[in-house]
Amino acid sequence: MHVVIIGGGFTGLAAAYELTRLGVGVTVVERDAEVGGLAGTFEVNGERLEKFYHHWFVNDSAIMQLVKDLGGEQNLVYRPTRTGMYFAHNFFRLSEPLDVLRFTPLKYADRVRLGLLVLRARAVKDWRALESLTAQQWLSRLGGDAVYKTVWEPLLRGKFGSYAPDVSAVWFWNKLKLRGGSRNRQGKEVLVYYRGGFAALARQLSSAIVAAGGEIRTAVQASSLIVDGNRVTGLVTSRGVIQADAVVATPALPIIAELLGPHVPAGYPERLRRIHYLANLCLVLELDRSLSETYWLNVNDPSFPFIGVIEHTNFEPAKTYGGRHIVYLSKYLSEDEPLYHMSDQEVLEYSLPHLRRMFPNLTRDWIRRHHVWRAQYAQPIVVRGYRELIPPAKTPLGGFYIATMAQIYPEDRGTNYAVKEGRAIARSLFPRPLPTGPFEYSG
What we know:
- The chain is an alpha/beta fold.
- Helices cover 32% and strands 25% of the residues.
- The strands form five sheets. A seven-stranded mixed β-sheet has the order 8-7-16-17-18-15-19. Strands 10-2-1-14-20 form a five-stranded parallel β-sheet, covered by helices on one side.
- β12 (231-237) and β13 form a beta hairpin.
- The two termini are 19 Å apart.
C-alpha cells in the first residue's frame, strides 16, 4: 500500500509517521521549501525561530506523546511565563490569580466575577451545552456586562473583527480551558518549548519517517488528481506524477475544494467552503534590547492594530538568538485588507507609531532586523452550529481523505491537535492487519 499526503505541516508529518509505523509506504508533498506548515521557521543568528509564535501547554498530551515516541523528552523545556494586558494606556499583570484582584479597570466586585468566570469555565464538563451560545452571550452570562466589555469584547473584536458577534462560546471555552489547565501549584502559567525550536522536532519527525522508508518532497506543488472511475489513483505535482492507493489532504478546506472540484458532486466543494477562515500577518522584530518583562501581552485597545505583543525572548532566552530580543506582533484579518498586501517595509512603518504609543522609549535603532510572515488560512472561524459544518474525513471520491485544522472541533488549531489529527487518520485508515486491496475508511 502507498499513501500520498498533501501538506508537510504537523498533521501531515504525524500521519506519515504513524503510517510508516504501520508498515505503509508514504510520500509527503509540501509546497514550501521546508516542512512545518504554520510552525515553519526562519534563521536568526544561526538558530531556527518560528515564523508565527508557538508554544505548548503542559496538558498538550498528543505532542508530548509524540516527543516521547521520538525519544526527545530531554528537549522539552518547561518555564513559567508572565502574561498581561494593555488597557487604557496602562499595563496590567495577569499572570496569577491574585493579579485579577489588582486589575483596577474593573470594580472589585467585577474582579471577583472575572476570577470566578475562569473557574466556572474550567468546570464545564459538556461543551455541547454551549453550542447554541455565542461567546458574547456566554461570557456576559458568567461574568456580567462590565467584565465582558472591558476584558473579553476587545479581545474577540481584535481577533475576529466583524465575525466577533458570531464566534461560538465553545471556541472561547476551549481557550480558557487550555490556559487554565497549564498552571503550577502557585497558579502561575507554565508553558513548554522545544530545544532548537519547533524546527528541531519537525526535523526529528521527518528523519524518523525517512528512516522507516517514507519519502518527503519539499518545494512540490500538488496540482491535480488522477482518478480512475470514482477512485483516486495518483497525484499530479509540479515535479511529476505519484501513484497512490490513497491520498490524505491536510491543507485548508478551500484548497482541498479546488483540488477535488472536477471529481466530486457539484455541491461538495461548496460544502467545504462553508467554513470561513481569517488570514494572519505577523511582524517579527529582532531588537537589541527588551521591550518589557511580559511574554504575552493582550492588547485591549481598539486603536492598536495588533491583537497581541508577544516577546518570545521572555520565554526562550535572548542568548539563544545571539542576544537578539524577539518580538511578535500578530494581526488576524481578512486577506483583502490593505495591511495584508503591504510590503514588509510598509508594514514596519505602519506599525512603529502604534508600538511607540505603548513603549515610548522605543527608537528605530533598537531594530536590527524585521520580518513579515503571512498565512492565508490561519484561523477557521468557529461560529454557532460549527459542528454541522465540519466535513467528515471520508470524501465522495474513493481513496481521498481530509484531515485539517478545521475538523478538530471543539479544539482549536495548534501543533498538539495537528499531531492528534494526523495520527488518528492514519490509524483509522489502516487498522491492523493491513488490507491487501482497495480499502475504505470506516470511521
